[in-house]
């Protein structure tokens, strides 16, 4: 049942991304082109997502536990460190160059466009490199 609802959630997200046009990198890049062909629709998509998320969180936090799990999985880190800032900057640069964020690129795989496949491959390689760097750094530190 948990996987069915996870799949339905992904389906709703993918349909929303497709209907809003956010699978089109040109539309996303036009949002960043303030001095040229600026397209504010991404701001409306984000604003709508924030409203729905806010309502959803208010409803969910009234529950003692999740419907399909023992406890809520809430991150507790609050510090802003170089890894967070660097990762955020890298995400933003990649988004600005490619016009895709990973969340929108996954449903865009269904379009069969080579640019989407290349972007997802770059994301996977980046994740693997980061994982490798973490292992190497952890192994180098004496216990």
Automatic annotation (TrEMBL):
Alphabetic keyword roster: Membrane, Transmembrane, Transmembrane helix
Transmembrane segments: 42-60, 89-110, 116-133
Presence of the UniProt keyword Membrane in the record: yes
InterPro entries associated with the record: DUF6691 (IPR046513)
Stored Pfam families: DUF6691
Protein name: Putative transporter component
